[in-house]
Design goal:
The chain contains four helices and two strands; from the N terminus they run H-E-H-H-E-H. By secondary structure, it is mostly helical. The chain has a two-stranded parallel sheet. The protein is elongated and about 50 Å long.
């Protein structure tokens, strides 16, 4: 996913008169579905959550590295805690990352 984004950015950067100043990320419902899927074992759900956390950390690192901005702000969110799709596990993974 990130490699496709880098390619698009590289194609456009000569036309842009701005720079990347932050990363905005929103966790989607698919992450919730995996974290609550009762057809998966507890180990599989925990593995999926660890995967989410590791993937999120990697994304942040790669974007900061690519933009040469080690302290690039990351604004992240999840679905509302009032929603049936909310996952405290995903939220905690974002905070930990």
């Amino acid at each position: 996913m990130f490699s496709a984004l880098k390619g698009k950015y590289n194609n456009l950067k000569n036309y842009l008169r701005s720079q990347v100043t932050a990363l905005l990320w929103h966790q989607g419902e698919n992450d919730y579905l995996v974290s609550t899927n009762t057809n998966l074992t507890l180990n599989e759900r925990e593995s999926a959550l660890n995967n989410y956390k590791n993937s999120f950390e990697t994304l942040v690192f790669e974007v900061r590295n690519f933009t040469n901005t080690p302290n690039l702000p990351v604004i992240y969110g999840t679905v509302s805690s009032n929603s049936d799709w909310y996952s405290s596990e995903i939220r905690n993974a974002q905070i930990d990352a």
